[in-house]
Amino acid sequence: MAVFELILCIIAAVVLSSFLSRFIPKVSTPLVQIALGALVTQLPFFPDVTLDPELFMVLFIAPLLYLEAHEIDKRELLRSVKLSLSLAIGLAIATMVAVGFILHSIWPSITLAAALALGASLGPTDAVAVSSLGKEAALTQRQTGVLKGESLFNDASGIVGFQFAIAAAVSGVFEIGQSATQFVVSFFGGAIFGLAVGMIADILFESLRSIGWETTTSRILMELFLPFLLYLGAEAAHVSGILAVVAAGLTIRFDHTGIGPNVARTNIVSSSVWGVLSFTLNGTVFILLGMLLPDAMSASWDDPEISNWRLLLAILAVSAVVIVMRFLWISLMLRLARDTTTHKRRKMTPQRWRSAAVMTFGGPKGTITLSLMFTIPYTVSSGEWFPMRDELIFIAGGVIVVTLLLANFLLPLLAPNHDKDASMEMSEITIEVLRRTVEELSGRVTSDNRKAVLMIIDSYTKRITRLKQRIGETDPQGYMQLQIDALNWEKEYVKARLADAKAHPSENKAANDLEAEACERLLDQIMNSLRHIETAHDSGRTIWQLKGRFRALQRRTGMLVRRVNSKIRRTTPLFSDDELFAHTRAVQVDAIEHVIDRLYEEMGKDTYNTEHCSGLLLDYRRGEATLRARPNVGDNAEAQAQAEEVKRESYGIELGVIQDMYEAGDITRAQSKQLRRNVYVMSVDADAQI
Fold first, then answer.
1. Do residues 205 and 222 make contact, with C-beta atoms less than 8 angstroms apart?
2. Where in the numbering of this chain does the Cation/H+ exchanger transmembrane domain appear (predicted)?
3. Is 0.90 topped by the overall pTM?
4. What pairs with residue 338 in β-bridges?
5. Which among 115, 208, 558, 571 is most buried, taking Cβ atoms within 10 Å?
6. pLDDT tens-place string over residues 269-311
7. Any residues with CB less than 8 A from the CB of 342 and at least 6 apart, and which?
8. Measured between alpha carbons, how far is residue 430 from residues 390, 433, 463 in Å?
9. Would you list the DSSP string of 551-567?
């Protein structure tokens, strides 16, 4: 029962962290989760937490690294593989040696082998933190590729080096030749094992698909099972399980093969499952880190025989060694690297020094470091207690916190997002979002919905074309404001028409009710979008939204009451769904004409940019022409309803793509917010109507 309660507490903390991060955007999600982990351990009902390092590696690190390797940009990884491997192997070994000798010299009570073990554990960077910490900083594609590539490969070198150093500390004997041989066997053996299993898995999965045995359930279960099988199999073969998982993730490509709606739906479900699992595991890793750090560090801090000042000095000294070594190594690699065009070495300019600093602070330490430190045995081969075990864990925990804090607060200063609202950048990002949405929609085409989906894809294609034409737009905020004002003009027109229908009811009650319900339906659609994008009500936004939803509920309740009343009093309804659909479209055409007239008036004034008015006029004209060109606009409500359903689904896909890009660090929080507003605008934009 205690384990179940622990799992519930951790999941609750992960969910809470996702909400808190929205209110403190300057603090990275990993830091929020570490703080939450430290706080929940203070709750009276919280069970004790112990970490089994081997279980931690297979349960959390293996699937996360597999997913990271599978989704990484392979071309960018190949371009930066030399620098990534240099950091993952060369820097890891150099850090191990430097930390070991310096720590031993300033604190002789810590044996050289134990200090080397600490240095080896500080070699791996945290793959999760690398992805999370750069969201508020403008890291280049190359910087991101180098950091992600390093985080994939350096776990193996750090773990192997740590194991050899601990063996020397326990036995008192260190064989350099034997250790080097074991390192090479473990490193390259793990890579070969992963490549072999990856190719076998590709053949197996593609064969099952070709003979029609693949189902969504079997595919997801096999995918989830694969990284655990890889890690355990490699460890049983005495090679690096981490590197085997990474190699297989880079090799496997079965989910990019095959065509047809069934394959597309399976890939969509797979992406969703991995997305939820990745977020949960990522959060759990840092929550656990926050839970373990206080207890891990309190044993040394509360020890009266150990000076707290000496502990803090050791943390600062080791942190300085790790950071300085990393900066010097990266600077040297950048200086030695040859230009891809001229094939000549380039001098270090201020921009390249800044790039070296960004990649220095972009490699924080994390959970792998702490999990390795927990594997330090309590005794040595002679039966005595392992010297300074608690102090080594304390220093490792302090370095983790220092590097995470530096990454969180220095990266945005070194690489600020000055151009995050630039029109060209936003237009290019929007085009990428629309392209990904079209790709996902294309995978959902079936014989039943083919016509409806192709209509939506056509509207997205037109949006992409217009955005490409508008790449040079210098005032995207002004154009966005004009779109919002145009929606408000539509709203006021429909409200006035609804008020007139209620104030001057005609003798034909059916016609009057049809007019009222069509206006209310269109008004709900417009108001729903305005509640998501309106900025003029920031001071009382929540109250304004609640009032709007209450008014919408009143309108829908009124419509329902009228329809129920008409069914009770008559054997047939006052009007059919086809008639309601056709009249709603007619009201919408009239509202479009009203906005077009208003835009013509505004073009002669100085309120809006003339080019913005002209561009929006073209959009509304296209929308009006599209609506008028369909002769069966009211003849088949079922077919049109299907198109409307696909349209709503496409907006959900678009919002999902935006969230995925934000979580992957491809766009910033401000950009994701603006993109979401664009979706809500387009949901009632005339050109996007079906």
1. yes
2. 14-412
3. no
4. 345
5. 115
6. 777 788 788 778 878 878 887 887 777 677 777 778 778 888 8
7. none
8. 51, 5, 10
9. HHHHHHHHHHHHHHHHH
